[in-house]
Structures are given as structure tokens and as C-alpha cells.
Amino acid sequence: MAPAILIENLQKRYGAIEAVKEVTFEIQPGEIFGLLGPNGAGKTTTIRCLCTLATPDAGRLEVSGIDVVADPKAARQRLGYVAQEVALDKVLTGRELLELQAALYHIPKPLARDRINAMLSLLGLEEWANTQTGKYSGGMRKRLDLAAGLLHEPDVLVLDEPTVGLDIESRIAVWSFLRQLRENGTTVLITSHYLEEIDALANRVAILDKGKIIDVGSPSELKDKIGGDRITLRIREFSPIEEAQKAKSLLEPLPFVEEIVINNAQGNSLNLVVKPQSDALSNIQQALRDGGLPTFGIAQSRPSLDDVYLTATGQTLMDAELAAAGTRDPKKERKQNMR
User: Fold this and answer.
1) DSSP codes, 155-207
2) What value, to the nearest 5°, has the Cα angle with vertex 130 and ends 126 and 132?
3) The Cα angle at residue 270 between residues 268 and 275, in degrees rounded to 5
4) Which residue has the higher pLDDT, 56 or 332?
5) What architecture does CATH give domain 5-220?
6) Which of 115, 177, 197, 277 sits 20 to 30 Å CA-CA off 232?
7) Helix (H) or strand (E) run with residue 241 in it
């Protein structure tokens, strides 16, 4: 069976910015596959190329065995795409908007009517079907956007940050709906920087950083790779780098310590990978006291996807988000996206 999505050596550049650098992965039919990474990692560029909204500079992209670049019209028939920003005509009712979407896909009217009724029921929008979308809540608008993306019954649904800005109740409703789609055989590609969202939904995940794939696997596989428990340690609230390096040299000889990363973005805190051990915290604190260093804060936990990202890049996903926000030029990005 051909992969639902195949991406090989995808490359995309916007002027001097290399947004995607030889990204490769494939998604099997019926999977929920997550693309996890901070803003600016290349997630949106990757799916825009896949959905025929941007032309790749190099690489091979297929949807259900169809070459996206060679036959974009056929590829679009197999794809449903829901962008991060919901763009609905506020004057149209929910039903009218779906009728317009059905007409754009040349779905016969009787069939369109049945599908629209089914989508409205499935997404809990029947009561609001004849209300103008300008009166919808954010969660309702997102659900209507999902309905529009699914109306032509695509093999693959591509979602760019589907729950950003939604309250927890709306997010849970979207999660439940995506699980139903998977049970019915629809393949879902979802981009997100919400760790818990990918952990809860994805069969497999690809982690992106600066346009490159760091790793691919199920959430449990990726967490198992780095092994051990995680300990976050602060010598002081904001430690000088020299103290952090001294603490690292004091703790590295401990037999249960497997790895130590100094997190510069969070006040030179230390992130440790340790073998599970009940007295790890007390032993670490004792080693620091013996070396003349205080302990401002210390906590132990099981591995998370953020630990996977930290181990690979030396910073947490939140740190990467903040760094990307500090270097983005909105005017320049708008010009590049218009090309």
C-alpha cells in the first residue's frame, strides 16, 4: 500500500531564508501524524508545499500516490486543508458557507445536502446552521472550518495549528473529532507547537527545528530513546554561566547521571537525564553543597516531548518559540508569502 503522504528531500527557500532543508518523512493511511516545532521551524512551509499552495524548490511530494507538483488538481481532490487562520465570510450562514464549498468542489446538490447535514451533526453545529458565521464563537468557527475541509471526503486532512487560540473545551472537542476521523480511516497531518496535543493525538510525530527533521517516531518511542528521568536544577534564579558549568562538572561524575544540558535561555538552569533512583535529588543537592553551591530549585519528572527537543537542540520548545518571536520581521514575511 502506498503511503498516504510521501515527502522526500523537500527544500524551500524564501529569498535568503532557507525555510525547509531536505525534509523527509512518510505517513501511512489512517495515521494521525504530528509535525511538532516552534514557529519558524518550517511546519507551515512544509504543508503549504504539500497542499499545492507553494512550489517547492526541490524534492518529491505525493498524496495517495499522486505527484503533488506534476498533478496538483488531482492531489487537491485527495486533500482537505484547514489553515491556522479561520477565514469565513461573516455574512454567510454556516449552511450557506458549506453549500458554497460544495459547489467549488462540483459536488452534486443532493449529495452535497446529505454531506452538509452529516457534517453539521457530527460537529455539533446543527443548532447554528442558519446563523451568520460572524456570530459564531472561535471554537464554532474552527469546527465549521473543519467541516469545509472534509466536505469532499478527502483521503488526507491537513491541519495547521488547529486549536491555537481555542479554550480548553473547544480543544477537547476538536481532539475527539480527529480521533473519530482516524477510526473511520482518514489520514490526518497536524502541525502544532502544543506538546500535549501531539502527545495525546499522534500515532507518530516528526520534530522540526530550523527547517530540519530532528527525529521521527511515536511519542513513546521518542521519549524512550532519551531514557531515564529528567531533573531540572537551578543553582540560583539566574546563575552566572561559570556557576552552571561548575555545577555540571560536580554532577557529571555521579553514577546515575547520564547527561547534563545547560539551558542558557532559562537563567543557565541545568537539565539532567538520570537513571531512575529514589535518592537522586538528595545526592545532587549534597554534591552541590560539597562543592560550595546552593540549590535555588530542583524537580524530577518522567521524559516528555519537550525533553526530546531539549536533548536534540539544547533549548526547550518554549525557548525556541521566544527566540523565533524575537527575530521575526512581519513585514518581510508578508512580502515573501506574496511571491
Assistant:
1) SEEEEESTTTT--HHHHHHHHHHHHHHHHTT-EEEEEES-HHHHHHH-SEEEE
2) 120
3) 175
4) 56
5) 3-Layer(aba) Sandwich (3.40)
6) 197
7) helix 241-251
